Amino acid sequence: MLVLLFKNFIRSKGTKIGLLFLLIIGFISLLIGRQFQKKQQNNIDEAAIYQKEHMARNAAFHKDEIGLLLYYIKFSLVNNTLPISSLAIGQRDVNPSIQSVTIRGLEAQKYDSELNNPSNLLSGNIDFSFVLLYLFPLLIIAFSYNIISEEKESGTWKIVATQSPNTFLYILKLFYIRILSLIGLLSFILLIAVFLLEIPIDKAFILFYGIAVLYILFWFAVCFFIVSLQKNSNFNAVILLTIWLFLIIILPAGINTYIINKYKVPEALELTLTQRNAYHEKWDMDKQQTLNKFYKHYPQFKHYNLPESEFSWLWYYAMQQMGDDESAIQSKELESKLEQRNNTSEWIAQFIPTLHTQIQLNEIAKSDLRNQLLFLKETNKFHEKLRLHFYPKIFDNAAVNQQKWETFKVETFHDKSETSYVKAFLPLLLFNLVLIGFGWRNFKR
Amino acid sequence: MKLLHKEILIARHFKNAVFKNSAIYIITLFIGALLLFAAFSGWDNYKSQNETSEKYQHESREDWLKNPDKNPHRMAHYGNFAFRKSTSLSVFEFGMEPFFGNAIFLEAHKQNTANFSEAGFSNSMLRFGEISIAMVLQVLLPLLIFFVGFNSVAYERENGTLKILLSQGINWKQFLFGKILGIASVVMLLFVPTIIVLVLIWLLLQSFSISADETIKMLLFVGFHFIYLMFFCVVAVLVSASSKTSKKALVSLIGIWLILTIILPRTTQAIGAYLYEAPSKIRFNSDIEKDILKQGDSHNPNDVHYKAIKDSLLRVYKVDSVQKLPFNYSGFIMTEGERISSNIYNKHLEDLLKIYEKQNSFSKAVSFVNPYIAMKNLSMGLSNTDYDSYIDFQQQAENYRYNMAQKMNALQIKYISNKKPGPKDKPLTIDKRHWAIIEEFHYEPKPVWEVLKSEITAVISILLWIILLFVLIKIAAKNLKAI
Fold this sequence. Notes:
- By secondary structure, chain A is an all-alpha fold.
- In chain A, about 70% of the residues lie in helices and about 5% in strands.
- Chain A contains 17 helices and 3 strands.
- Chain A has a 3-stranded mixed sheet, sandwiched between helices.
- The longest helix of chain A has about 50 residues, at about 15-60.
- Chain A starts with a helix and ends with a helix.
- A 3-stranded antiparallel sheet of chain B has the order 1-2-3.
- Chain A: Keywords: Membrane, Transmembrane, Transmembrane helix.
């Protein structure tokens, strides 16, 4: 019986076209993912080469003045891209994955954006998460909206009802073969992904796969529930598409608009102005005052006294430091606003399966806002480390050729945060159970 | 009036039938609520965006003028900001705005990136899109039209009433036009109030003092959306008329909607981005740096290019060292350096923008097959939230930056003594009143003719669509069968 039902399902022209379409676009999404991966890798390679050349050239030019040299040279920090990121690119196309900074004021450099074509950003990537989130549900709806209604409308339902001992079991079987074929397709695409994108099969991948399966089941549960209402095909199609529209477009977009309007970030602009003034005004202020502030921040450098000359690198870097120190409040505020944005959206997302799936997939792939905020924090640490290393050298005017420039390689930040199974799976699981429960009850009536 | 009598009768009848279904009230109410939400959040967003950008633009201007006497080169590094301001139509069409950087720091020697885009501060939720009036008009209303119109003809065919109607002296053309009018009259119940609210908000935002340019943009915005929606009414009726059953009509229409509004826009842009790969920021910057070094490095005393300049200056002024020149030599060299580096930067930027345009060319070309993309591009253009407007903003900012840097260099050449102060001397300064020669940055959005010029593909394709639909109605009227 099951085999016959399966043959009947797979032989239909619509089914074949639908599955083939999804397979092809799934494969295309992997190619796009691979291009993304290569581009990231290229960027890192280029950054490493550039840093080496750039340091060597500048060290040769400014061999007498280490303070001047460090005015110019940039050090890069890379936000590590996992292979699995190629499946859910998320915000990685918007945010730069490499920060290149000099040891001057960080606040003026930290938010430098990536070079981007805004048209690409607006339309978004066709990564695997898009295929899963948008297109799988459409096929699921197309496969199941007319599960009973079609037979009722064509008059074959009565035959089924009289010939099959348990019509409910029959309906379950119809769903079973559809679920099996789509999960089969999902697994197949992800299997190709494992080889094509060299994704290791670790906890992250299992989480990713688990969420994908649960998400597909969620849409089947929705269809199961709607079918259980036993309306006609047109009604089912309209209602299912409306649900799709709500979950994929209207609710996420509405919530996003709400969050953006609720947590506005004028701090960003204020931060840049404050930072600029805090640094520049020091040129026209008493030097000793600036230095006193600097000593307060770094008591370990107290023994470096202000030289008598009009210009000194000690004073210069103290001024730069003040740009950061005096805009620290705004910087903190901006950071906490962004954290609030992220937390609020994650909290709301628990109640909207599509949003939850998207946010979780990006969290696993380390391509979400959380990862970006961690990367910015790490940039702070990276920058501070460089400062502490070079400040005494500059103040002593250490010889440029005595420094081991070649040891300053591009560094990499690994986001170690882990996603828990419960947090990832529970919301989807609950939705599935509730929908199936209600559908079951409707059928039993 | 007599002429359209039958059509109007059919339309009225259809409208009454639609409103017999209670679901339409719920949907209408819901879309109405959504439109209100979109209008208010758009308004809120626009106001806060412009208030902040105006506030900080103003503040940074005051800061600039407040600077005490100093060396003009210090001022060139103090720099200015270009904050992006939105146009009033962007309340209704956000376009690419969330992905635009909102502030560019403008200083000497260096072209900074436009930073602080909304997207950089959002999580991936943003990628689902945003709710704006334009989104409701362009994405949701067409679907509503399809839901209302899928059984406009097919249902009458299934019922057998089609035969009766056609045998009573109504011809296909009248029948189709009647149905189109019927659907249109349902949609207009949403569209007309929306437009009225839209115009009111728009007037209010500009305190009722509107410019001709803005008015034309607004009229075009409304007009094109009207044509766009009519297009979907016609498609709904044509598909319904050529489908055997209403179910088939519904499925085909849903398919058309999905392809036009969801699948094609993403795919075409993705194809463009896949085929034409743009360089990374690191590559872009290091290429520029290399080219500048090739041209000449002003830091290197033995550089050929700068040595030639030096020698010719010495010859013309008949002196033996640059210190004896009658003007500030390093100011002169910086002017030359700025000119060279910004020429090179602009050349590289041009190349980069060419790649971007190639990426976008697919989407632009697809306007001919996809009226959604044509409409989207046009409405983004009219509200100055499209790609070209953004590039225009960046270009205006760069022109301002170059001008500022060179004016500061000119001040240095003219007023700063050519004799370098000793290590313990006070630095050379000029009076602070000079700072006012730099005007405040003011972004001028593209005027309507420029917009239409850059979105000409969209305009032409919409015109072609109108013609095509009339032709299709004609063909359909001839060939359709009642059974």
